[in-house]
Design brief:
Elements (H helix, E strand, L loop, with lengths): L12 E5 L4 H12 L3 E5 L3 H11 L5 E3 L7 H12 L7 E4 L14 H29 L5 E6 L13 H21 L4 E8 L8 H5 L1 H4 L11 H12 L10 E4 L9
Parallel strand pairs: 1-2, 1-4, 2-3, 4-5, 5-6, 6-7
Length: 257
């Protein structure tokens, strides 16, 4: 048993949607540190380009701006990626959106925007990239990691109806896709993060001292926590994890918050 290479991503390619900031960027930096070639995508081209430039200090990182909330946008991202690589070892479906509004006022636009990006995009992007994932799955498994949320497992008091529904759906979609893609040597898993400082989770970012009081671990998540979870699932270490969702939340879902 060679444990020195158990968590290595040396020589592997990774595509991370929503990779310019927040959780996606944490994962990108972790993958780069483990030797992967990383491609990040985000809707805002300037931010994506700048993040890739900064991340290039840790290894090969390429910006591929795209809007994956539509099937056409997902296909455009696949075409852009294919100009650099002919196979894909690791796909991280991280791009996401949230919307909060009172129940009586919740708009259809807030439903469609969130569900399209959080639930539809991971399916159709993975579907479009499956031939490249299968091509990479030679002496090792290819990996798909969907970024869900603890809000898809336990109920958040905030009125984020479409967000909670989309993340719960993504966890079940992960199970269903995992059973189908295992036959192609593609392992599909998910991560359900708790409080990590990001533009999406402004409460954790701006009010960390208050938020950590509700977390059994006594702190909000750090970049190493998210990178470590993703590296585990992406590497040989996580090969026998199929269809499961790894909760990374400092114990919140067990606390009744």
């Amino acid at each position: 048993m060679d444990t020195t290479r158990l968590f290595s991503l040396q020589g592997r390619s990774a595509l991370i949607t929503g990779g310019s900031r927040g959780i996606g960027r944490m994962i990108a930096e972790g993958f780069l540190a483990q030797g992967a070639r990383v491609y990040i995508s985000a809707r805002k081209a300037a931010a994506c380009d700048q993040a890739a430039k900064e991340l290039s200090a840790f290894g090969t990182c390429v910006s591929l701006p795209a809007d994956v909330s539509t099937v056409e946008g997902a296909k455009a991202l696949v075409e852009a990626y294919a100009r650099h690589e002919d196979s894909l070892d690791i796909l991280v479906n991280n791009a996401g959106a949230a919307w909060g509004a009172p129940y009586d006022e919740f708009p259809e636009s807030g439903w469609d925007k969130v569900v399209d990006l959080n639930l539809k995009a991971p399916f159709f992007l993975t579907q479009a990239l499956t031939p490249m994932l299968k091509k990479a799955a030679t002496d090792h498994l290819a990996k798909v990691i969907n970024i869900a949320s603890i809000d898809g497992i336990s109920v958040n008091p905030l009125e984020t109806y479409s967000y909670a529904a989309s993340k719960a759906g993504l966890i079940q979609l992960t199970r269903r896709m995992a059973l189908r893609l295992a036959q192609d040597r593609i392992a599909v898993t998910a991560i359900a993060p708790g409080a990590f400082a990001s533009d999406m989770n402004k409460e954790a970012r701006d009010h960390g001292d208050e938020v950590k009081g509700r977390i059994p671990a006594g702190r909000i998540g750090e970049p190493e926590d998210m990178a470590g979870a993703a590296i585990f699932l992406a590497s040989r270490a996580g090969d026998y994890v199929v269809g499961s969702t790894l909760v990374v939340d400092g114990g919140v879902i067990h606390s009744g918050r």
